[in-house]
Amino acid sequence: MKILLAEDDPNISVIAKIALEHIGGHQVHLATNGRMALEMALSYDFDLILLDEMMPEMNGLTTCRQYIAKKQEPAPVIFLSAKSQESDIREFTEIALGYIPKPFDPATLNQTIYRIISKSQRAEAA
């Protein structure tokens, strides 16, 4: 998969990129703020976007809303966030496929992504 990872924390982005590329075999492109993520997402076709909520210049929810509104065929979005209150999770899952809480386990990140995608596909088929 060609994945856009939007994450402003360099430690998290390095760990996630290694997990996604070396364990999952994916091609990962990094964005370090919401504005950059939106520009990249609109300019290139990604199979998946992993989007941090708390980023400089534009938060993840705003980035996601603008991306979906502007992209003719948007890629699925999964949020990565330390926000874990029920209201936050509900807001993420209303506009995206799902949510992965931080900190996440790099060894199971790919499995978590596939589980969210599979659950979404089953829900669409029902």
The CATH class is: Alpha Beta
Instruction: Encode the helix/strand succession as letters.
Output: EHEHEHEHEH
Fraction of residues in β-strands: 15-25%
- As for the CATH topology, it is Rossmann fold
Q: Order of strands across the widest beta sheet?
A: 2-1-3-4-5
Radius of gyration: 13 Å
- Helical content (DSSP H or I, runs of 4+): 40-55%
Number of E-state strands? 5
Shape: globular
Q: Could you name the ranges where pLDDT drops below 50 across 5 or more consecutive residues?
A: none
Structure class = alpha/beta
Major sheet size, sense and barrel closure: 5 strands, parallel
Helical stretch count?
5
State the separation between the terminal residues, measured CA to CA: 25 Å
Average predicted local confidence, pLDDT = 95
Describe the model:
- With about 130 residues, the chain is an alpha/beta fold.
- It has a single domain, classed as 3-Layer(aba) Sandwich (Rossmann fold).
- Helix content is about 50%, strand content about 20%.
- It is built from five helices and five strands; from the N terminus they run βαβαβαβαβα.
- Strands 2-1-3-4-5 form a five-stranded parallel beta sheet, with helices on both faces.
- The radius of gyration is 13 Å and the shape is globular.
- The mean pLDDT is about 95.
